[in-house]
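The records we work with from here on pair a chain with its fold. Taken together, the tokens spell out the fold as the letters spell out the chain. To see the layout at work, look at the sequence and tokens printed below.
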Amino acid sequence: MAEKELTFEEAMQQLEQVVEKLETGDVPLEKAITYYQDGMKLSKLCTEKLNQVEEKMTKIMNEQGDLEPFPMQEEE
């Protein structure tokens, strides 16, 4: 059975749980590495989903013709 894709909210919740586990400091090193890898995957998924939303928002705004697109991330 295929694993369902997480929503942004589900991925963020899981990422927060991973961070909480790592912040306790009571995690064995090997388990911490696994949590870190899981956290990186979840972070990447969240970033991808945010980028998809930004692209959709930009497309919608461009279709309206009179609105300027706005960056979802603060530029440095």
Observations:
- The first helix runs from residue 8 to 24.
- The mean pLDDT is 85.
